[in-house]
Amino acid sequence: MKKLRWAMDSGGFWELDLSTPITLNGQARSVPGEPLPLGLSRGSRLSRCQQIDFFQRFMAMPFVPSFSPNTGFFLQRVLSLPIGESWSTMLLGQLNVQKFVSSLRKNKTKHLPDSSWLQSIGRNFIQKSFYALGFSSELSLTPDDTLLISFDAYGDEKMPQKKAVLHHKFPRHNLAMEAAWPGLFVDGNGSYWDVPFSLALDLASTALDSGASYHLFFNNCAGSPKQYEGQHSDELPPAALLPGFTAKGVASLKKNIDLWRSEASMLKMVQPYDIFLSNPHISASWILGENCNVGAVFSAYLGDNSMKGQRSCSLQGLKDFDLRIQGANSAVSVDSFASASLTAQHGNFQRLFLDLTRVHTRFDFPSGSKLLSGITSVAYSLYNSQEPKVEALQAICPRASLCFQQQIIGPFSFRVDSEIAIDLKKDWCLSVKNPVFAIEHALQVLWSAKAVAWYSPMQREFMVELRFFET
Fold first, then answer.
1. CA-closest candidate to residue 435, choices 452, 420, 424
2. How do residues 409-452 score in pLDDT, each as one tens digit?
């Protein structure tokens, strides 16, 4: 099975899929060029059908629950139809429990005889508006090529969603080509957008513990984007989703260092609940480590979405260090980025109680030109014995995030991921932003896999997922 990873392990500078229960396939793509709100985004992943099939087969879960404000509370179940060793097909069924119960209450009459009450329940069960059906087929064309085709239909007359994804493995590279109609995207504010048709190509070098790597992304959108059904706001669609072509490239380096690693022996004959969380340590990363990046970002826009190139990351009244070219119907920009992180872990995750405490902090500098503009302005003000501008000081402040994980009992642990917003214009500069709470159940027999139940207060979404640690 393909491996998964947390958003915290992605570095925060690349477009990753976001887990969401509002669609049957359980994911949405990020808007090109806009970082996702910290939460539950990830790179390569198991399909939603594969996750639910695992829960049914190995965790005795007849139904997998989810919740979103757009669709309510619902249950999902999968029927696996293996065709051969290299070809599998799955059917995903979804029942909207919240709508079903609301309909029963609306139609309930206290004086109805029992037979009429049972007939009322039967009539509700056959209403197609309470159901959704997803078809997913995965075919291994060669040992290095996999084709995934999915079709999702909704009984409430919502537009069906179709997707085709081709994965190919090159030596030390991974290639993914995806076509979706309509395509679901999520922007940095957490708003969902439907694009009538999107075509994407993603080429990435294989991740290494240290050294250089790169990532190339090409995306083409067609049709007018609109907000996902159930959302009502006055937001304008992101420019990158307007009809046109977007290209982005990332070149980066990676470096990790252990500040301290425990040499104490582990308990004998006791397997850790998670093999990758079994060694107390303190480690730092910079340039590009587990969550650290530095390098060059190249972006190009052709078509209506080229207006995105008009956005400047320079500050008002500060020197502009941007490198960008703006044409009549195109835009090209080059920038740099950097981040650093610190991870500390106590415990081996072997004992029954409180044997794992893990804290991970990351500081991102998304725009090197904006950072340089801020530093230059602050240095100029100090040199002339002037008070630095608040905008310049704000530009120097990094985008911070915090992850805290604590074992509760046995394989169960509590985890919270949150951004730490820094706003120098407020009396209290630090604030918690976009927290995501999760309960993890480590699947000991799989070394480093977990069943995760998470809740996002910002999105008001709840989901149960299967994840693997990506090495």
1. 420
2. 999 999 999 888 888 888 788 888 889 999 999 998 777 788 99
Number of Cβ within a 10 Å radius of residue 329: 12
Q: Say whether 174 sits in a helix, a strand or coil.
A: strand
Q: Grade residue 266 by pLDDT with cuts at 50, 70 and 90.
A: confident
DSSP code, position 291: S
Encoded tokens for 230:
């159930």
**Amino acid code (one letter) for 171:** P
Strand order in the sheet with 183-186: 41-42, 17-19, 27-30, 183-186, 192-195, 226-227
* CA atoms of 246 and 238, how far apart (whole Å): 12
Residue type, 232: H
DSSP structural state of residue 272: -
Are the C-beta atoms of residues 97 and 74 closer than 8 Å to each other? yes
Q: What is the pTM of this model?
A: 0.83
Rounded to the nearest angstrom, the gap between the alpha carbon of residue 37 and the centroid of all alpha carbons in its chain is 8
Q: What share of the chain is helix, strand, coil (3-state, %, to 5)?
A: 15, 50, 35
CA–CA separation, 155 and 99 (whole Å): 12
Q: Which has the closest alpha carbon to 340: 359, 358, 322, 360?
A: 360
Query: For residues 377 and 319, is the Cβ–Cβ distance under 8 A?
Result: yes
Helix (H), strand (E) counts: the chain: 5, 26
Q: Which residues contact 234 (CB under 8 A, 6 or more apart)?
A: none
Alpha-carbon distances, residue 134 vs 1, 175, 278 (angstroms): 20, 25, 39
First to last CA, the chain: 14
CB neighbours of 82 closer than 8 A, spacing ≥ 6?
88, 89
Cβ burial 257-296 (10 Å sphere, 16+ → b, else e): eeeeeeeeeeeeeeebbbeebbbbeebbbbbbbbbbbbbe
Instruction: Give the chain's length.
Output: 471
Q: Residue 107: pLDDT above 90?
A: no
Q: How far is CA 292 from CA 14, 213, 230, 289, 341, in A?
A: 12, 12, 36, 4, 6
> What is the residue type of 215?
H
Q: Please give the single-letter amino acid code of residue 444.
A: Q
Place 455 in a pLDDT band, splitting at 50, 70 and 90: very high
d(CA 423, CA 192): 26
Does residue 339 contact residue 365 with C-beta atoms inside 8 Å?
Answer: yes
User: Which residue in 58, 53, 45 sits closest to 4, CA to CA?
Assistant: 45
Q: Is 61 exposed, middle or buried (0-12, 13-18, 19+ CB in 10 A)?
A: middle
* CA proximity to 64, closest of 401, 415, 349, 464: 464
